[in-house]
Amino acid sequence: MELVSICIPTYNGARFLDACLRSALAQTHAHLEVLVVDDCSSDDTLEIAQRHATDPRLRILRNARNQGLVGNWNECVRQARGTWIKFLFQDDILHPECVSEMLAEGLRQQRRLVACDRDFLFAASTPQALQDTYLRNRRTINDFLGPARGASAADYAAMMAGRINVNYVGEPICTLIAADAFKHYGDFDAEFIQLCDVEYWARIASHEGVAFVPRPLASFRVHESATSAINRSAKAFRSTGLERLALLDKALNADIYAQLRELWAASGALALRHKERHDRANEVLEFVHQHRSAPEAANIAQEHGAFVSRHPDCKVSRLSHLRWLSVSLPLRYKYRAGRLVARFFPRSTQSDTRTSR
What we know:
Elements: E1 4-10, H1 14-25, E2 32-38, H2 45-50, E3 58-62, H3 68-79, E4 84-87, E5 93-94, H4 98-109, E6 113-122, H5 128-145, E7 150-151, H6 153-162, E8 175-178, H7 179-185, H8 196-208, E9 210-222, H9 227-234, H10 236-253, H11 258-267, H12 270-290, H13 297-310, H14 318-344
Parallel strand pairs: 1-2, 1-4, 2-3, 6-9
Antiparallel strand pairs: 4-8, 5-9, 6-8, 7-9
């Protein structure tokens, strides 16, 4: 029987950790290890984990120094003993059959990346707009992966060509990953904050596709202290502007994405992705220029400077940017002006009574 490692990377997660651990230890799959890797928490995280230490399946480790979000994910993978890795975050809950059903699907389809549907535990304070965003993404994933219980590499590449920054698999809690996939595809990329999981799914799925269980087997908690919420608010420029461009640039340059580029070329999408990179790079530069007087201007400029040093193909010359502005801004203003005019002079809803000749 396959040994599955449920990896729980923790940092100041005392609030919901007990329920999280109980859900991990209640799995119906018999051959299991539950691995807690704590990233130097300052609350009662370790004490709560120790309450469950009488269960021999539980291992509790503490990092010697704080490694950060992505660093701790990678530490979990390095410390895991199983042939499959099941991530579970400190706020979240697995349904009892989660591991057994996902493992069976992965073995049946012989795929190393398996996803499942998930539901959400929204805190009362969660804005409706944010709830709608999560629910919309859930529909997107189920519409894409549900009918065929997964997707081929070509189908995944086609979705990435449409919107590269969309999560077409789900959060790590929704995944089961063969341990040898990490040896082949490497670690999670610490350059990413908000899209670290999206980028990794792209690495695997653009080569092998993904299997899917169209049943909610995990519950993802959304609240004001959740890491994803903090990342969105505190690092908006990096997570929403630079990370999308970084993902696109890696897809167009990195060796690991050579097959993705071949799939894009075969479908006629590769040239459009190069144009998209050019447009996104200019949009990011224009954002930097427009915020030169903002309180955070120095941080934005520094972040952008470090980014283009890592991604030289995203560096835009002054002349190239002026050319881009001469085309893009008139189109934007024309669109905005058209919307403004439409507010005051809406088109008639009556049918046209003119007679054609």
